[in-house]
Amino acid sequence: MKSNSLTKPEKSLPFKWYYDQKIFQKEITKIFNDEWLYVCHISSIDKNHYRTLSVNNKNIVLIKNKLNDISVFYNTCSHRGSQIFDQKEGKVKSPIIICPYHQWSYELSSGKLLNTTSLKLKNFDKKKYSLQKVNFYIWKGLVFVNLNSKKKFNLQSTFQYYDKTIEKIDLENFVVGHVWKKNVLCNWKIYWENYSECLHCPNIHPELSDLVPLYQRRLVDIKDHPEWVILKKTNSHSKYHGGLKNGAETWSVDGSSQGQSIEDVQSELESRGQIYISTWPTMFLGIYGDHIRIVRLIPISSEEVELTAEWLFPKSTLSNSIYKMENVIDFGILVMNQDANISEVNQRGIYNLEKNSGVLMPEEYIIRDFHIYVRKKLKE
Ligand code: FES
Ligand SMILES: [Fe+2]
User: Fold this and answer.
1) How many domains, the chain?
2) Atom number, ligand 1, closest to the C-alpha of residue 117
């Protein structure tokens, strides 16, 4: 049986690509302005509320109206271009959006220009001055935007790593129980690379490697080892089979899921422990015994990335008064902080050898795929 691992050393990206301004601007244009970017789960924004999102110098606003419908616009007035919403998020006080500069007013849901404050002008066609809509798509309750207005959402091309198991989950009706944010001082690709391998797991994540015994072998999948078929047959330890350690039910501080579960996928999770889905460049999602965690990555600059993690639960779990969310949240934060710290260490080392690149070892096949993706997008 084939293994996932690389069979020869592969050149990593040049170290310069992790801080060079020209490369970063090219990535913004060719990748971030052309791909489906994850914004948030629909339950993380209340009705009659808005949220803005900045991607480099572009800023968009997502609005949920009183009927729970979503609209997404560029955060720019059609008059002379003023920013309209100046907070990251907030409540919309009326069904009308008013520009803070000269008070042009727009309809909240459609973005249609309702009124200007000027003297009447012949031949002024209000219809031409609506707010500019942003291309968006809601998939299973997850809101994605694309700054390329021509792109159509396509499941196959949006998710580089997809797992059909998610189709069994009623994700639209899950509820975001907690949101955590952190800015990490590293290039966005460094954080993705770190996410894509487990060579670092035993020393960076001792608690996680205890929970997921396979990670003690520095692998993300049992099939990463060339002899995985034999190893599986001849070893009964879960290190060779995948899944969580004996007795553990979910990714949490004590391994317990407190009697809660994502029922439709339990058998799948029992054998695998966790299931991942990812879409470059902004989102990875993990399915665990009793919850889902989504992590969004947005670059702030060439050497800073903003992480936003959302923990999603079935409604019944959150309404269960004895369920303690902290058990899974604290564990997720522990692991993400460990990854954030080591990603910053990685970043600090790359400046010395600007003409060089690193090397990818057998277990780093997902990073190789990621580099192929980045190179291809930059050439487009
Ligand atoms: S810029 Fe918005 S009303 Fe003038
Ligand atoms: Fe990690």
Assistant:
1) 2
2) 3
pLDDT digits 0-9 by tens, 88-102: 999 999 999 999 999
**Domain containing 272: what range?**
1-19+169-380
Residue in 182, 189, 378, 145 with CA at minimum distance from that of residue 302: 189
Tokens 């990621």 sit on residue: 370
83: closest CA among 111, 112, 113, 52? Answer: 52
Q: Closest ligand 1 atom, CA of 84?
A: 2
Do 1 and 54 belong together in one domain?
Answer: no
- Interval 118-139: pLDDT, tens: 999 999 999 999 999 999 999 9
- The alpha helices in the chain, defined as continuous H runs, are 21-27, 155-158, 188-195, 201-204, 206-211, 228-234, 266-272, 315-318, 326-349, 365-379
Asked if residue 100 has its Cβ within 6 Å of ligand 1, the reply is no
CATH number at residue 132: 2.102.10.10
Q: Does a structural domain hold residue 137?
A: yes
Question: What pLDDT is stored for residue 355 in this prediction?
Answer: 85
Q: Are 176 and 312 in contact (CB under 8 A)?
A: yes
Last-in-domain residue among 131, 158, 185? 158
* Ligand 1 nearest atom to the CA of residue 77, by list position: 2
Cβ–ligand 1 contact at 99 (below 6 Å): yes
102 lines ligand 1 (CB under 6 A): yes
Q: Label residue 354 by pLDDT band (50, 70, 90).
A: confident
- The answer to pTM > 0.70 is yes
Asked whether 223 lines ligand 1 (CB < 6 A), one says no
Q: Are residue 319 and residue 179 in the same domain, yes or no? A: yes
Contact 237, 213 (CB under 8 A): yes
Point out the ligand nearest to the CA of residue 100: 1
Ligand 1 pocket residue status of 126, Cβ below 6 Å: no
